[in-house]
Amino acid sequence: MVLNVGEVLKSYRNTLKALDDGAGATDGAVAPGGGFGNILGNMLGDTVDTLKKSENVSLAAVQGKASINEVITAVSSAEAALQTVVTIRDRVIAAYQELMRSAV
Prior knowledge:
Number of strands: 0
Helix content: over 70%
Order of helices and strands: HHH
Largest sheet: none
Oligomer: single chain
Shape: elongated
Radius of gyration: 18 Å
């Protein structure tokens, strides 16, 4: 698997920014615009955008308007983004199952 360093850094930067936006809450409350749900939503939005970009670049290549390098870069970014979403999904499911196994 090939990772696009630019996309990884962009995702990391967006995550840090979202965490910083939520860091202003001091009494356990989540600041507007912050929180896990918002971070997850932003990440999913970025993933969808990456997948759409990959599709557009692939279509442009079929039309002869994009190079093979652009297609490979776009598809690799989409693959990395999708793999990240699947990993997060798996971790959330594992955490949920662990909660269900715990004694109440």
